[in-house]
Each structure stands twice: as structure tokens, then as C-alpha cells.
Design goal:
heterodimer; A: about 120 residues; mainly beta; 6-stranded mixed β-sheet; about 0% helix; globular; B: about 110 residues; 7-stranded mixed β-sheet; about 50% strand
Chain lengths: ~120, ~110
């Protein structure tokens, strides 16, 4: 079974600054995918970024990038130039590429507050 | 673009009542899942399906029932609601092939009194 751990329940960052959210996971799978989802107050789950485990290059999406360390089983999210609209709950999630690929395992989330 | 449609968005039930949360997707996804979200616990898998006619239990299946008679629909039934089932429920779908993320419905906030 997979586990996903987010050790930062809450974080705060000033507008235009950079913040990094941590995520570690445990799995015996070799091929898998990792995701960061954003959940604003509207409750909608929005994909922020995804990483394929077989790719060594870290994924980037505009102001969002990840630091993927496969050996350390670490998958942190960096948000650059933080904006007020980034205020949300952020969830790290794991999905195997085969077998249990239909299931996502989530961390407990990090609540991010962007302040003026 | 409808994506994943969940109904209702809000519901209040009395203890012991039954109800069905509806979920429909129009993306022809093979995989569909139900999660519940509770404070401090993230999203936990209730039941999931890998295709029509095939369902299986997730992490927290007790008190819930599902069926998948078509690719599009995956309803979640609460057989006899309990206060412990007060939660936000999400339906999600994803494709079996490729590196695709799960697409989520808007969620249902359920309160059992």
C-alpha cells in the first residue's frame, strides 16, 4: 500500500514571494505518477502539476515547479511569485501506473495563505 | 464541457435515512471513484470501479454501496445514514490509458443530524 505524507498543515507567504510545500511518499512500485492538486474555497479540485516517475526532469507549469527526488521519495511543490489567488488547500497525490492505477492516494493537505 | 457532474451539492439527512449521491461523466473514462474529505484527513477512497460491472472497496467502504451499470454513471448509496458520515464527498474519473489525472466533480457536502 502507498502512503503520502504532507508534514506542513498550514503555511503563509507574502504576495510575490516564493514558497515550497513538502510531500513525501512511500511505495514499492517502480512506475507511478505524482500530482499536486489545489482546492480553493470553492471546493473544486484543480490539477496544478503532475510528474511521471520515470522522467528525471522536474515538471514545471508557469509559476509552479516540483523538486522530484525519486530515491528520497520526495515531491515538493514550489510556487514562485505567489498571488492572492494561490490561497487554497494543496494536496499531494500518488497513483501507480499499473495494478491499482485507478486509485489515488492523497496526503492530508497543506493550507496555504497568501498575504499582502 | 460537462466533465464530471455530481448531484446534489448540499444535503442534510436524518440519522437512519438513505440516499443516493449521483455521479456522471461524459469523457468515456474507464475509472471512477468516490472519496470522502474530512478535516485533517485528506481525501480517502470509499469505492472505485475500473469499468462497467466492476466495483471494489477502497479504504473506508463501510456504510456505502456502489454499482456501475454504465460507463458514464457511478452512484454512491448511503444505506442508513450516521453522523459519522457527515463529510464532503467527491466523485472522480480518469482514463485507463496515458498519464491522465483524475477529474473531479464539484463535491457534495453532506450533513447527517
Amino acid at each position: 500500500a502507498q502512503t503520502v505524507t504532507q508534514s506542513q498543515p498550514e503555511m503563509s507567504v507574502q504576495e510575490a514571494e516564493t514558497v515550497t510545500l513538502s510531500c513525501t511518499y512511500d511505495t514499492s512500485e517502480n512506475n507511478y505518477y505524482l500530482f499536486w492538486y489545489k482546492q480553493p474555497p470553492s471546493r473544486q479540485m484543480i490539477l496544478v502539476i503532475r510528474q511521471e516517475a520515470y522522467k528525471q526532469q522536474n515538471a514545471t507549469e508557469n509559476r509552479f515547479s516540483v523538486n522530484f527526488q525519486k530515491a528520497a521519495k520526495s515531491f515538493s511543490l514550489k510556487i514562485s511569485d505567489s498571488q492572492l489567488g494561490d490561497t487554497a488547500m494543496y494536496f499531494c497525490a500518488f497513483r501507480a501506473s499499473t495494478g491499482t492505477a485507478s486509485k489515488l492516494t492523497f496526503g492530508t493537505g497543506t493550507r496555504l495563505q497568501v498575504t499582502l | 464541457n460537462a466533465g464530471v457532474t455530481q448531484t446534489p451539492k448540499f444535503q442534510v439527512l436524518k440519522t437512519g435515512q438513505s440516499m443516493t449521491l449521483q455521479c456522471a461523466q461524459d469523457m468515456n473514462h474507464e475509472y471512477m471513484s468516490w472519496y470522502r474529505q474530512d478535516p485533517g484527513m485528506g481525501l480517502r477512497l470509499i469505492h472505485y470501479s475500473v469499468g462497467a460491472g466492476i466495483t471494489d472497496q477502497g479504504e473506508v467502504p463501510n456504510g456505502y454501496n456502489v454499482s456501475r451499470s454504465t460507463t458514464e454513471d457511478f452512484p454512491l448509496r448511503l444505506l442508513s445514514a450516521a453522523p459519522s458520515q457527515t463529510s464532503v464527498y467527491f466523485c472522480a474519473s480518469s482514463s485507463r490509458t496515458g498519464v491522465t489525472e483524475a477529474f473531479f466533480g464539484q463535491g457534495t457536502r453532506l450533513t447527517v443530524v
